[in-house]
Amino acid sequence: MTRRSLIRAGAGTALLVGPLVLVALYGGLIAEPAGKRVVVSFLIALLLVVAIQTFSGNSGIVSFGHVAFMGVGAYAGALLTIPPATKASALPQLPQALLDVQLGLLPAVAVATIVTAVVAALVGLVLTRMEPYAMAMATIGVLVIFFVLFEAGKDVTRGTGGLYGIPSNVTLTVACVAAIATILVARLFRESSWGIKLRASRQDALAAEALGADVVRLRLGAWILSGALMGAGGALWAQYNLAFGPKQFFFTQTFDLLAMLVIGGMTTVSGAVAGAALITAATQLLRKLEGGFAIGGVEIAGMAGMTSILVAVLILVSLRARPEGLLGTRELDERIAIPTPWRRKRP
C-alpha cells in the first residue's frame, strides 16, 4: 500500500472518528441507562454494517448471508466465555474441550474471528466463482442453511432454547474502539491495490480480468475479510446482549443491517456509517410513536410493527430518489478539500 493510500485511509477514518467519539461521550456522560444501551447497540450495528460493506461495497455484489457469519462469531464467542458450570448445566453434551474453557473478551473475540474467517473461506471458495447475480441469490441459501444448523445443533447451540449466562464483557469504550478499528480496516482495504482492483471489477469484470486482475481471488479475499469482521462483531454482540437464539441471525437482522447499508450508500464506508446512524435514530423515534401520538389535538392510534413498515418505506423512497445512497459513491474525505501532500501546489 502506498503512502498516499495510507494517508487517504487515515484521513477518511479521522473524519468519522470525531462524531463517533462525541456519540460515545454522550452515551457515557449524559444519557440515561436506556440511552447508553442504544449508543452501544448503534456502535455494534455500525461495526456489522461496515463489515458487510467491505465485501458488498467493493465487489458490487449484495450479500444476504453475512448475518450467518455474525451468528458463527456470536456462538463461538459465547461458548468460549460462558462459565464451565453454566455450560455443564445447559449443554451437557458439549465436547469436553469446550466445556472446560473460559476465555476473556479479547481472546474470545480473536478466536471467534479466526473461526468465522475459516468458515467464510470454505463458503467463499464455492460462492465467489459464481456470476454476481447468482452469488447474491446463493447468499440467501447460506443464511437459511446456517439458521437451520443453529437450530438443529442442540448439543452445541442449545437449539431454539438459545444460549444464556454469557458474561457482560462489552462496555461503551470497547464498542467504540471496535467500531473505529473496523472503519480503519475497511478504509485500508478500500484504498489498497486489492480494493481498487475489486472496485474496478465491479464496474467491468471482463475488462478487469483482461488487465490481469484475478476477480475470483479478489472477491474471495474481500469475502473472508468481511466474514471475519462479522464474526468479531457477532462475538461482541453476544457478550453485550448476554442471551440469544437462532432467530437473532435470520431475515430480521439481515433486513436491519442491509437497510442501513442501502440508505447510507453501499459503495462507501462513510455511507455505511451514515446509514447506521440514520436508521438507528429513525428507529428510536418511530418506536416512541408506535404506542400512539397526537397531532394538533388529534389522537393517532399506534400500530404494532409500524417501525418496520416505515423503515421499509424509507428504503423504497431512498432507492427511488437516490439509488446510490445518502452519501453517494464518494467518501467524505473525497468530498472535502483536506490538505494532503499530493494536493499541495509546488512553489
Task: Please render the helix and strand layout as text.
Elements lengths: L2 H28 L2 H27 L6 H16 L2 H7 L5 H5 L4 H23 L4 H21 L1 H4 L14 H20 L1 H11 L1 H6 L4 H27 L9 H14 L4 H21 L3 E3 L2 E3 L5 H16 L10 H4 L12
Antiparallel strand pairs: 1-2
Helix pairs in contact: 1-2, 1-9, 2-9, 2-12, 2-13, 2-14, 3-6, 3-7, 3-12, 6-12, 9-12, 10-12, 13-14, 14-15
Query: Taking strands numbered 1, 2, ... along the chain, how are they ordered across the largest sheet?
Result: 1-2
Overall 3D shape = globular
Helix and strand pattern: HHHHHHHHHHHHHHEEHH
Tally of DSSP β-strands: 2
Query: How many individual domains?
Result: 1
* Percent in helix: over 70%
Could you explain the architecture of this structure?
The structure is a single chain. The chain has 347 residues and is mainly α. It has one domain. Helices cover 72% and strands 2% of the residues. The chain has a two-stranded antiparallel sheet with strand order 1-2. It is globular, with a radius of gyration of 21 Å. It starts with a helix and ends in a 12-residue tail after the last helix.
Summarize the structure.
The chain is an all-alpha fold and about 350 residues long. Helix content is about 70%, strand content about 0%.
Which properties best describe this structure?
16 helices; 347 residues; mainly alpha
